[in-house]
Amino acid sequence: MRATAPARAALFKTRPPLNISRAAFALGARSYASKPQTLKERFAELIPLEHENVKAIRKEHGHKAFGPVTVDQVYGGMRGLPALLWDGSVLDAEEGIRFRGKTIPECQELLPKAPGGSEPLPEGLFWLLLTGEVPTVEQVQALSADWAARAALPSFVEELIDACPSTLHPMSQFSIAVTALNHDSAFAKAYQDGVHKKEYWEPTFEDSMDLIAKLPNIAGRIYRNLFGSGKLPAIDPTKDYSYNLSNLLGFGDNQAFVELMRLYITIHSDHEGGNVSAHTGKLVGSALSDPFLAFGASLNGLAGPLHGLANQEVLIWLQRMIKQVGENPSDDAVKEYIWSTLKGGQVVPGYGHAVLRKTDPRYTAQREFALKHLPNDPLFKLVGQIYKLVPDILLAAGKAKNPWPNVDAHSGVLLTYYGLDQMKFYTVLFGVSRAFGVAAQLIWDRALGAPLERPKSYSSEHLKKMFANRS
Ligand SMILES: CC(=O)SCCNC(=O)CCNC(=O)[C@H](O)C(C)(C)COP(=O)(O)OP(=O)(O)OC[C@H]1O[C@@H](n2cnc3c(N)ncnc32)[C@H](O)[C@@H]1OP(=O)(O)O
Ligand SMILES: O=C([O-])CC(=O)C(=O)O
């Protein structure tokens, strides 16, 4: 967010600057205002500044080119093609993700925590994604309370989930439930009522807040129907989002699991705009489909094994490995298993990436969590052993551009340790988190009047003719 200097000064008349310590900021916030500024109020202030910012960028740089598009990019999944605006995060191939310019360790340090907790609250991350600013403790608490108040599902959505056969994959159930929330979309209603396009952001904001708020109840219901027992507990309006999600899953009394959820939701939330789930949400949203329809589409992309489903695939692959080579395998036995995967024409799940060329910092954050909370877990040790062996094998195989682990190589091991060992459910948790990034961008897209997406496509025949006489 780049406001002009005078505009910044005007805004900070009522708010402290962002470079003071979080604790001091929190104390200050309490003394100068009884009610913290809401996310919606702050966002509304930022819209005109961002309009100015975009106008200035387009005026100065609008005619400049990034570089040529090659025919290989058209055939090659548009890898590296600069084609999308995404403000929440940017991915560097070597360094990994930064959320509004902040690395994962910086977010862990700067974002507000729950009392007694040490992991960042995802509420704070959402505030950061949307505004580019680190919120106060009070602002984050108000957001937790707002989401808790919006968490209830329409009864027909509960019935839809309950009617799903237990053989239907949890991601399909998740997508059905999210799509059905469109029944009560504020944006869809406002559009039908003839809302002015300048006001699109407001019902989009409301839908996005409802979407995020309702996901714990959807995820909890799917989990209990398929794997758990007993009635779903009520949302506790005094607790944070991750506690409520954990409690709905049946892990509310496990403080370490709740901390894991805080970290998990924070780090899985956003990975710039080109990944399948994020781009799908943005694309569908560009048709002015409401956030429920747009994010339902995101989930269908996340459910693919080369994307979010890889966390499920990693655990299945690990279990098969253990069955084949035992619980304490030698390096040679593990190597043989990895080679047999490649020779069978399959991918090693959890390794490789379309953009990253180093170990994913989300993998590292989860590894550090494991070193702190479960250093002697046999499955964690196996994951560490695999980390030492896979990269050399992928390099030797000579195909993968990135031999290093991605986020999905580690998440399932942590969940399994705490007893959430139903791997078919893992991508649902990824989806809960990914809503944060997709929703933040949808709100900005509507606030900035983002256009319908409609890139140009060609047939192979056309390409052949087009380049026939060019060297
Ligand atoms: C949250 C996320 O979405 S993170 C990614 C999760 N997905 C996985 O972990 C699945 C395993 N990994 C992969 O399949 C890939 O690395 C992807 C899909 C993530 C990236 O794909 P790409 O950008 O096409 O990777 P890349 O350019 O390196 O691929 C070149 C070749 O190496 C292969 N390759 C890449 N990664 C792997 C891997 N982990 N195991 C085996 N082969 C691999 C590709 O399949 C491709 O083979 P091909 O030429 O026969 O088609
Ligand atoms: O960036 C990507 O292509 C895939 C990924 O890691 C994510 O979406 O989290």
UniProtKB/TrEMBL annotation:
GO terms for molecular function: acyltransferase activity, acyl groups converted into alkyl on transfer. The active site is at residues 307, 353, 408. GO terms for biological process: carbohydrate metabolic process; citrate metabolic process; tricarboxylic acid cycle. The keyword Transferase applies. GO terms for cellular component: mitochondrial matrix. The keyword Nuclease does not apply. Transmembrane segments: none annotated. Keywords: Transferase. PANTHER family: CITRATE SYNTHASE, CITRATE SYNTHASE, MITOCHONDRIAL. NCBIfam families: cit_synth_euk, PRK09569.1. Belongs to the citrate synthase family. This is Citrate synthase. It comes from Hydnum rufescens UP504. The lineage of its organism: Eukaryota, Fungi, Dikarya, Basidiomycota, Agaricomycotina.
